[in-house]
């Protein structure tokens, strides 16, 4: 009758029975096991949709089981329970998620029947549309595609490049924006496959544009988690080679996160990318974890000023000061300054007057289909838009 099969593992039979009783009352089929061998066997043969797992067990602990489930590519929703306290159970939850499992809840013992029923109900109703399995399926079915947002060179008014931004054309949910699935992909190993696909697609697209006489540079977004993969630089270099694209035409935009601090491995990958000729941009600069120390220590070649400062720069003198200082800082360190989120002619003029190198945003163009890029580049190369848009146009240097 129900499609929800809950497998419970707890070394105390009485607790397992209580959990099963509560789960049955909210519509689950249940099965209780007491040891790891039975558990793993049932995971394979009974294919539970949900698992309740006690982290503390005598022979094999919950963390070992999580790692086994991850290597078996288990897609069930996992609810962790433990008597060792909130912080431990939450840490285990993060470990499980990082291994690509769907850990949907963590309950610290003792919990009431009502609490457990609440978690089980919300898990039952939760539409598990975003799982490692559904994501891989979507990749296989080629449901992802890239849009490209033009970037304009502020000294010439010419479109010199674009940023690739991913979208998911979901058969049931329509077009899904990256912020709805990239964090999930980053929390699992899915982001590696996604970034590989983006590299191949972006290089192939540049080759197509080149053949049409439209030669621009391209920026792609790379997650901090991608830097755990030591082969990233080689993979991207070989994707460029296959498409006949020089790595110097690609910029990798990276948002700094706490995870990047002090990681020698990441420094190694970033340096290798630079050695191979790729450009590296620090994205969303001014927010999150970016700091002057990081900027100095890591081999970035471009600073991308976050749109919160850019959009504020026409109305707030503080934002304006920040933008001016970031541009100066970039230049002092031999880097390029790029502004994102340019939404008005005033903002564009201000950025140009402050010496910003490139700009991107809805005032110039929204993210568009690959096929529309040559027209956008042609239009901006002729600078008709550049000369005629906005009150600032007459004072701009001719391209
Ligand atoms: P981001 O790298 O900061 O990308 C810029 C975002 O600002 C894009 O949203 C873009 O559509 C939006 N935008 C463009 N012009 C304007 C404007 O004038 N005003 C405002 N307010 N916004 C503007 P999008 O495409 O939804 O991407 C959101 C974020 O998702 C990106 O932020 C990036 O962090 C992530 N992302 C997108 N594509 C990829 C990807 O291929 N890989 C990875 N790892 N992350 C991606
Ligand atoms: Ca970006
Ligand atoms: Ca950004």
What is the correct CATH architecture of the largest domain?
Alpha-Beta Barrel
Q: What's the CATH topology label of the largest domain? A: TIM Barrel
The CATH class of the largest domain turns out to be Alpha Beta
Spans of at least 5 consecutive residues with low confidence:
387-399
- Gross morphology is elongated
Describe the protein's architecture and organization.
By secondary structure, this protein is α/β, with parallel strands linked by helices. It has two domains: about 5-125, Rossmann fold; about 130-385, EAL domain (TIM Barrel, Alpha-Beta Barrel), CATH 3.20.20. It is built from 16 helices and 14 strands. The strands form two sheets. The protein has an eight-stranded mixed barrel, surrounded by five helices. Strands 2-1-3-4-5 form a five-stranded parallel sheet, sandwiched between helices. The protein is elongated.
Short descriptors:
five-stranded parallel β-sheet; elongated; eight-stranded mixed β-barrel; 399 residues; Rossmann fold; alpha/beta; disordered C terminus; binds calcium ion; TIM Barrel; binds ligand C2E
Q: What are the SSEs and their pairings?
A:
Blueprint: E1 5-9, H1 13-25, E2 29-33, H2 36-46, E3 50-54, H3 62-71, E4 77-82, H4 86-98, E5 102-108, H5 113-125, H6 132-140, E6 144-153, E7 159-170, E8 174-176, H7 182-187, H8 190-211, E9 217-222, H9 232-243, E10 250-255, H10 264-275, E11 279-285, H11 292-297, E12 302-305, H12 307-312, H13 317-332, E13 336-339, H14 345-353, E14 358-359, H15 373-381, H16 384-388
Parallel strand pairs: 1-2, 1-3, 3-4, 4-5, 7-9, 9-10, 10-11, 11-12, 12-13, 13-14
Antiparallel strand pairs: 6-7, 6-14, 7-8
Helix pairs in contact: 1-5, 8-9, 9-10
This protein binds ligand C2E and calcium ion (2 copies).
Ligand C2E is lined by residues 149, 165-166, 177-179, 182, 198, 221, 223, 253, 255, 283-284, 307, 340-343, 361-362, 367.
């Amino acid at each position: 009758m129900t499609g929800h099969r809950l497998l419970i593992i707890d070394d105390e039979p009485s607790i397992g029975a209580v959990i099963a009783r509560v789960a049955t009352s909210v519509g689950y089929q249940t099965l209780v096991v007491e040891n790891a061998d039975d558990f793993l066997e049932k995971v394979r043969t009974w294919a539970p949709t949900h698992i309740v797992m006690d982290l503390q067990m005598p022979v094999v602990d919950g963390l070992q089981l999580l790692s086994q489930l991850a290597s078996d590519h288990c897609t069930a929703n996992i609810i962790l329970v433990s008597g060792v306290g909130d912080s431990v159970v939450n840490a285990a939850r993060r470990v499980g998620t990082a291994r690509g499992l769907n850990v949907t809840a963590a309950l610290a013992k003792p919990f009431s029947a009502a609490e457990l029923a609440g978690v089980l109900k919300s898990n039952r109703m939760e539409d598990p549309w975003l799982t490692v399995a559904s994501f891989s399926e979507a990749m296989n079915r080629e449901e992802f595609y890239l849009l490209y947002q033009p970037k304009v060179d502020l000294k010439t008014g010419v479109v010199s490049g674009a940023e690739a931004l991913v979208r998911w054309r979901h058969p049931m949910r329509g077009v899904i924006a990256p912020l709805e699935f990239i964090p999930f992909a980053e929390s699992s190993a899915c982001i590696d496959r996604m970034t590989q696909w983006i590299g191949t697609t972006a290089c192939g697209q540049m080759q197509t544009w080149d053949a049409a006489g439209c030669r621009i540079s391209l920026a792609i977004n790379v997650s901090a988690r991608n830097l755990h993969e030591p082969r990233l630089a080689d993979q991207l270099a070989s994707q460029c080679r296959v498409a006949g694209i020089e790595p110097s035409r690609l910029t990798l935009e990276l948002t700094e996160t706490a995870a990047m601090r002090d990681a020698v491995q990441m420094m190694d990958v970033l340096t290798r990318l630079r050695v191979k000729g790729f450009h590296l941009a620090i994205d969303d600069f001014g927010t999150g974890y970016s700091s002057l120390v990081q900027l100095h220590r890591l081999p970035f070649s471009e600073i991308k000023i976050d749109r919160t400062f850019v959009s504020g720069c026409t109305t707030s003198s503080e934002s304006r000061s920040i933008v001016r200082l970031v541009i100066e800082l970039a230049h002092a360190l031999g880097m390029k300054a790029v502004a994102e989120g340019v939404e008005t002619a005033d903002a564009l003029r201000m950025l140009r007057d402050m010496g910003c190198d490139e700009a991107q945003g809805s005032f110039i163009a929204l993210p568009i289909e690959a096929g529309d890029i040559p027209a956008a580049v042609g239009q901006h190369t002729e600078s008709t838009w550049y000369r005629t848009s906005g009150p600032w146009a007459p004072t701009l240097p001719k391209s």
